[in-house]
Amino acid sequence: MSGMKHSGGQAGEGRVKNAILIAGPTASGKSALALDLAERRGGVIVNTDSMQGYSVLDVLTARPEAADLARAPHYLYGHVHPATAYSTGAWLRDVMKLIEDGTFSERPVIFVGGTGLYFRALAEGISEMPDIPQRVRDRWRHELKEQGAVKLHSLLLREDSAAAMMLKPTDSQRIVRALEVLDASGRSILEWQAERGQPLIDRESARFLVIEPDRAALVARIDKRFDQMLDKGALDEVKRLAALGLDPELPAMKAIGVRELQAAMAGEIGFPEAIERAKIATR
Fold first, then answer.
1. How does DSSP classify residue 45?
2. Which residues contact residue 123 at a Cβ distance below 8 angstroms, ignoring those fewer than 6 apart?
3. Are 54 and 78 in contact (CB under 8 A)?
4. CB of 14 within 8 A of CB of 96?
5. Which domains occur in the chain, in start order?
6. pTM for the full model?
7. What average pLDDT values come out for the chain (283 residues) when binned by 10 residues?
8. Which of 64, 184, 197, 259 is 20 to 30 Å from the Cα of 274, by its Cα?
């Protein structure tokens, strides 16, 4: 890392110059590295993990604690309500707003997290998708439940044959997505995908760091950290999330540990089994 540049901030055309991107698996130490770099260089940290953007799940998503937040500026942590289906496009728009507002100024910007799509969007840009109203999402989830994927594929074939021909009749997730986009915007998902946006970082000056710890050591750290999460109130978080009565298919409801602990709370499995399942899912 000695070859990293110490300058940072925003380049022309809305791109961050000399960005540092730190990726790696859960419990690999990437957040600690990001904080160390931010402190030593006067930088800022931007969350690049889809789950850490949600509120309520402070403990289960291992969001930075108050002591860490006090050591360096952190952005895009815990700012999204769990009822929101927060997408890569929405995250990218939030990053763009930080850039346009001059939030980063000339400080080094450190992107850290475990969501590969976010990193790819930063470096390559993504196809801008329309916002899908919740009523439209609910409609097509209901239709999928009532009719099944094959019938919805036939419907898509009539309404948007080009998109339908690229999908298997059993690919329910992508079929529903194509129908949602068509319903909400009146345009084919293929048209939206063809309009790729611009990268938000200057790739030539960026530094990409991928942490790849020893597998056995990583598993031990994951297990220990989940036990610590339970001590810090992970179960209470799951109770608060359950009290919101959210759709179980929302992204926040799929955070590791949520379904396992909910199953234990409902008496479907024992807590030891739930804990073991959550640890395995994290690995």
1. E
2. 21, 199, 201, 203, 206
3. yes
4. yes
5. 12-128+197-210 (3.40.50.300), 134-194 (1.10.20.140), 215-282 (1.10.287.890)
6. 0.80
7. 42 78 94 97 97 96 95 98 92 95 93 95 88 92 95 97 96 94 97 88 95 93 95 96 92 94 96 96 90
8. 64
